[in-house]
Amino acid sequence: MIESGSNTPGVSADTFGLPDGTAIRYERPARALAPYFTSYVVLDSDPAMWGGKGEWMLPSWAQIWIVLTDGPITVRIGNRTYAPLPRASLYGVTSRAMPVIANGGATVGIDISPLGWARLFRQPADLFGDRVVPLETMLPRAWVDTLVERLRASNLGSDVQGILDEFLTGILPPENPDEPMVAQIMALLADREIADPAAMAKLLGIDQARLRRMTKRYFGFPPKVLKMRSRFLQAFVPMLLRGRDNDFGAVPPRYHDVSHFIRDGRRYLTMTPRRFAIMDTPYLDAALRARGAVFGAKTPTLEAPAAPAVTSVAAG
């Protein structure tokens, strides 16, 4: 298996709490790429111990996943099942947790922010919400072949950061003029004090109809869905890592009551928060801890964008 850890100074894999037979690496993209690709991850597991076992992924921004194992991987999003995943996939922005069944081996992931979607893809993000498509339907096949071949030839450890930095720098198109507003919207979605889309639109200096068009185009869903998702994950991720030690009767921050939180749980987890939190999800838990050790935020959806401050985005 790969060596767990990170090229980031001061990060020790000992803090990840990995279950036996698994490995994880998280890496920071180059500074110029960070607004567009928030993190790189390599996952590995022993097929003899983890073959055919299930795990979960939380709702997230778009992702590229490269499968470097011969064992099939199955992902379910809502009523759609993808089995097996192709060698290189694009996950659109997701609004619900996803059960995954793998058979061991290594995979490489690239987290794509809404700014990255605005820069890299011309297709509207809402066409791919809660969907998985072959990456070669979105990028030239020759690019995908090059990426897969370079990763296969690597050590899948310390090499990966440089390979992905070089590849993504080489394919990144010129700036999209909507990027300043996309960055502002990302920041407002992560801001715990901004309660609703009306407040977001007012701060942006635009009407709610334009805000809705922008979020569907680059974020995959209307602003209300995204804001609710952020609020839920802000409350739920700490609960998930506490597992059975939670006070499930307590009202989480920014929720009216427990029933309100349960409704959001059913929406974004497909089950109650309590049921999900007490499940055995050791690899997901370790991935959250590992990302937190490298980036601070345990999921990309809870990060503000790594982009220069914008003074005005209301024009146009």
Comma- or semicolon-separated keywords:
316 residues; Arc Repressor Mutant, subunit A; 6-stranded antiparallel beta sheet; 4-stranded antiparallel beta sheet; 10 strands; 16% strand; HTH_AraC; HTH araC/xylS-type domain-containing protein
Report on the structure:
It is a single chain. This protein is an alpha+beta fold and 316 residues long. Helices cover 37% and strands 16% of the residues. It folds into two domains: 13-171, Jelly Rolls (Sandwich), CATH 2.60.120; 179-302, Arc Repressor Mutant, subunit A (Orthogonal Bundle), CATH 1.10.10.60. It has helices spanning 47-50, 114-120, 141-152, 159-171, 179-190, 197-204, 208-218, 223-242, 258-269, 273-277, 282-295, and strands at 22-27, 37-45, 54-57, 62-67, 74-77, 80-82, 88-91, 98-101, 107-112, 132-134. Strands 1-2-9-4-7-10 form a six-stranded antiparallel beta sheet, sandwiched between helices. Strands 3-8-5-6 form a four-stranded antiparallel beta sheet. Helix 2 packs antiparallel against helix 5 (179-190). The longest helix has 20 residues, at 223-242. Residues 308-316 have low confidence and may be disordered.
